[in-house]
C-alpha cells in the first residue's frame, strides 16, 4: 500500500471529497422543537465547512416524529423540513465541502415526552433511558413501515441536495439493537444467528437503495463490536459489514453501545477501532472510514500508509476546533486542543468546555 495522503481526495461512490477527513455525526441540540434547521444549525455547519473538512455528516435525524428521542434533534421525517436543509446544503457546498445526512431510529431509547410509548425495539423489554417505560417488539408490519420511513427520509436528503445519506446502525440505537444479542431475543427469522439479526438492518439499507437509486452514495455506521460481554462480536460485525457492503458505498467503523460509551479519555488510546477497520478494509472493496479517538494527523497518515483504511471521522476534535483540518493542512504536527474529556457529550455537542459559552 502507501501513496495515499490525508489531503488526497476521498471517493465514496460518485462523491469526491477534497480530503480524507470526515466530520463524524455530532448531535448539536440546536434544531427547533420540530426537527427543523435553525440559524444556530446554519452557524455551526458554516463554521465546520469553512474549517477545511472534506465531508460533513450531519447529526442523527429521526425518520418518524413520534419516536424521536433527543431534545432539539434534527428530523427528516416530513417534507416541511426540506427548505431549511436546502439552505444548509447550499451553505456547506459553497465552501467545497461534501454533505451527508445521517438518519436513525433510536429504538428502545426513543420516545421523548410527550411520547409515551412503548417504543419499538427488537424484543419486549424496558427502556434503558427510563425504567418505568416498557419497549415493544416490532411486528413485521412495523418493520415494513419503518424501512419505508428510512427510505422516505433518505429520499428527502437527496431532494434537499445532500451528496449522500448515512444509515446509523451503531451505538445501540434500533438497528444496532437488532444486531446485538443482548437486545434481540427474537425467535423468528429476524433473531438468532447473526444472519437473522442482520436481516432487518439489511432490509432497511435495501429500501434506502431502492428509494435513492443506484448512484446516490449510501454510507452505514456500524459498531466494530458492541464492546460488552454478550454483545455482537468483532467476527460477527465483519459478517454484517460484508453483507452491508453489497448495498452501500462506504462503511464508517465505530464502536460502543448505549450507556457503555468507550471513547478516548485524556490518557486514552487513539484510533480505537483501527485493527477492526484494517481487517474490514481487506474484505470489502468500498471505502472504510475509521471513527473514534482519531487525534494526531501523523497517526492517521501511518494508517493510510499501512492499511486499506480510506478516511477518518472526527467528532469531538471538531467541536473544539472546527478548523482543525485547515490547521493540519498547514502543519501536520499540530496537536489538537481537544482533551477528550467528553463533557460535550451527550447533551451539548455544539459547545466545548474549553470555549467560553457561545
Ligand atoms: C456530543 C456528541 C454527539 C454525538 N452525536 C452523534 C450522532 O448524532 N450520530 C453518531 O453516529 N454519533 C454521534 N456521536 C459519536 C461520534 O460521531 C463519534 O463516533 C464519537 O464521538 C467518537 O469520535 P471522536 O473520538 O472523534 O469524538 C456523538 C459524539 C459526541 C461527542
Ligand atoms: S468538551 Fe472536552 S471532549 Fe468535548 S470538544 Fe471540548 S475538550 Fe473535547
Structure report:
The structure is a single chain. The protein has 358 residues and is an alpha/beta fold. The chain has a single domain (10-356), classed as Alpha-Beta Barrel (TIM Barrel). It is 31% helix and 17% strand. It contains eleven helices and 15 strands. It has helices at 39-49, 82-93, 140-160, 174-179, 194-197, 199-212, 234-244, 274-283, 297-306, 316-320, 324-330; strands spanning 10-12, 15-17, 21-23, 55-57, 61-62, 74-75, 98-104, 119-121, 125-127, 130-137, 164-169, 218-223, 250-254, 288-291, 311-314. The relative contact order is 0.15. The model has no long low-confidence stretch (mean pLDDT 92). The site of flavin mononucleotide has 25 residues, from helix 10.
Topology, number of strands: 15
**Structural class, please?**
alpha/beta
Provide the low-confidence segments as ranges: none
User: In the CATH hierarchy, what is the architecture at level 2?
Assistant: Alpha-Beta Barrel
* H and E string: EEEHEEEHEEEEHEHHHEHEHEHEHH
The portion of residues assigned to helices is 25-40%
Oligomer: single chain
What's the CATH C level? Answer: Alpha Beta
Beginning-to-end CA distance, first to last residue: 44 Å
Overall radius of gyration: 19 Å
Instruction: Name the shape in a single word.
Output: globular
Strand order of the largest sheet: 3-4-7-11-12-13-14-15
Biggest β-sheet strands, sense, barrel: 8 strands, parallel, barrel
What proportion of the residues form beta strands (DSSP E)?
Answer: 15-25%
CATH H-tier superfamily: Aldolase class I
Number of domains: 1
- Mean pLDDT equals 92
CATH topology: TIM Barrel
Chemical compounds bound to the protein: flavin mononucleotide, iron/sulfur cluster
Give the helix tally.
Answer: 11
Amino acid at each position: 500500500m502507501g501513496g495515499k495522503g490525508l489531503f488526497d481526495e476521498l471517493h465514496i461512490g460518485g462523491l469526491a471529497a477534497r480530503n480524507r477527513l470526515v466530520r463524524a455525526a455530532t448531535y448539536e441540540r440546536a434544531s427547533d422543537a420540530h426537527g427543523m434547521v435553525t440559524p444556530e444549525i446554519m452557524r455551526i455547519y458554516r463554521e465546520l465547512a469553512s474549517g477545511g473538512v472534506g465531508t460533513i455528516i450531519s447529526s442523527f435525524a429521526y425518520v418518524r416524529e413520534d419516536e424521536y428521542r433527543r431534545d432539539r434533534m434534527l428530523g427528516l421525517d416530513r417534507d416541511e423540513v426540506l427548505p431549511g436543509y436546502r439552505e444548509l446544503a447550499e451553505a456547506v457546498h459553497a465552501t467545497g465541502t461534501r454533505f451527508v445526512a445521517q438518519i436513525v431510529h433510536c429504538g428502545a431509547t426513543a420516545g421523548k415526552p410527550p411520547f409515551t410509548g412503548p417504543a419499538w425495539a427488537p424484543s419486549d423489554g424496558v427502556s434503558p433511558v427510563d425504567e418505568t417505560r416498557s419497549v415493544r417488539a416490532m411486528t413485521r408490519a412495523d418493520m415494513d413501515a419503518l424501512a419505508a420511513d428510512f427510505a422516505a427520509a433518505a429520499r428527502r436528503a437527496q431532494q434537499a441536495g445532500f451528496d449522500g445519506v448515512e444509515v446509523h446502525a451503531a451505538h445501540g440505537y434500533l438497528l444496532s439493537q437488532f444486531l446485538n444479542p443482548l437486545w434481540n431475543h427474537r425467535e423468528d427469522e429476524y433473531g438468532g444467528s447473526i444472519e437473522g439479526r442482520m436481516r432487518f438492518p439489511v432490509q432497511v439499507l435495501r429500501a434506502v437503495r431502492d428509494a435513492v437509486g443506484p448512484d446516490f452514495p449510501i454510507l452505514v455506521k456500524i459498531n466494530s463490536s458492541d464492546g460488552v460481554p454478550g454483545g455482537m462480536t468483532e467476527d460477527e460485525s465483519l459478517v454484517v459489514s460484508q453483507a452491508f457492503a453489497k448495498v452501500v458505498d462506504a462503511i464508517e467503523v465505530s464502536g460502543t453501545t448505549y450507556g457503555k460509551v468507550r471513547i478516548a479519555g485524556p490518557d486514552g488510546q487513539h484510533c480505537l477501532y483501527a485493527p477492526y477497520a484494517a481487517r474490514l478494509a481487506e474484505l470489502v472493496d468500498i471505502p472504510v472510514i475509521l471513527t473514534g479517538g482519531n487525534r494526531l494527523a501523523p497517526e492517521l497518515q501511518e494508517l493510510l500508509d499501512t492499511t486499506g483504511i480510506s478516511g477518518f471521522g472526527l467528532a469531538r476534535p471538531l467541536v473544539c476546533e472546527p478548523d482543525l483540518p485547515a490547521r493540519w493542512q498547514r502543519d501536520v504536527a499540530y496537536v489538537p486542543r481537544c482533551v477528550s474529556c467528553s463533557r460535550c457529550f451527550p447533551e451539548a455537542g455544539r459547545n466545548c468546555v474549553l470555549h467560553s459559552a457561545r
